[in-house]
């Protein structure tokens, strides 16, 4: 099955390089390109891509607002939004995750990493740039949260709370299983139940919630 991708960036050369890299893969297809956030919203609603590769800083409408509008208007089958960022856009990244983006990649990452990232988010997983994830989310969750309120977690069992804590620290299902000495399938089931109980789309939103509620302390 081919994954349909919409590429959004205000620089034509970057869009073209992404298109070439993605279209060279048998399982990926670039179905459209947009140079502004407004164009991205219109094309996403028209083309119904599975993944939107979204730059943040663009004219007319930035990628953050475009992502919010795309996800709000998508109904039951929203696309996965993969945000492209640079170090000077940290705060935008945190806000994008809160808006429902499935993860982010650094714009200077190798194209092979970008291709893999598209596949990861298309499969329903969250993806973060490992070198900056915890610093980004922890720092801006700390600013946004004020006094932590764990009321949102009251429906979780003690085991599910621990699973959420481990997910927020960036552990995969296999690593969660190893940490808790349980089967990987059991860990996967725990993660799924946590997301369902908390009405979260994916791990990206789970990470943000864990920091905002104080379950995981910034810089822990």
Structure notes:
By secondary structure, the chain is an alpha/beta fold. The protein has two domains: 3-131, 3-Layer(aba) Sandwich (Rossmann fold); 138-212, Winged helix-like DNA-binding domain superfamily/Winged helix DNA-binding domain (Arc Repressor Mutant, subunit A), CATH 1.10.10. Helix content is 51%, strand content 13%. It contains ten helices and five strands, in the order E-H-E-H-E-H-E-H-E-H-H-H-H-H-H. Strands 2-1-3-4-5 form a five-stranded parallel beta sheet, sandwiched between helices. The radius of gyration is 17 Å and the shape is globular. It starts with a strand and ends in an 8-residue tail after the last helix. The relative contact order is 0.11. The mean pLDDT is 84.
């Amino acid at each position: 099955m081919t994954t349909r991708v919409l590429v959004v960036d205000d620089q034509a050369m970057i869009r073209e390089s992404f298109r070439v890299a993605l279209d060279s893969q048998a399982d990926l297809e670039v179905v459209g390109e947009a140079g502004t956030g407004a164009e991205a919203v219109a094309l996403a609603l028209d083309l119904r891509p599975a993944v939107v590769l979204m730059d943040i800083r663009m004219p007319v409408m930035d990628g953050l607002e475009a992502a919010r509008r795309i996800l709000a208007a998508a109904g039951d089958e929203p696309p996965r939004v993969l945000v492209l960022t640079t170090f000077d856009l940290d705060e935008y990244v945190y806000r994008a995750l809160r808006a429902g983006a499935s993860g982010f990649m650094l714009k200077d990452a190798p194209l092979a990493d970008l291709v893999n990232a598209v596949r990861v988010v298309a499969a329903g997983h969250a993806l973060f740039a490992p070198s900056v994830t915890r610093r980004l989310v922890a720092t801006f969750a700390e600013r946004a949260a004020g006094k932590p309120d764990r009321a949102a977690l009251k429906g979780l069992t003690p085991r599910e709370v621990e699973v959420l804590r481990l997910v927020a620290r960036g552990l995969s299902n296999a690593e969660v299983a190893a940490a808790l000495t349980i089967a990987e399938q059991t860990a996967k089931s725990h993660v799924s139940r946590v997301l369902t109980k908390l009405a979260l789309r994916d791990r990206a939103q789970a990470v943000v919630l864990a920091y905002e509620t104080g379950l995981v302390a910034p810089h822990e």
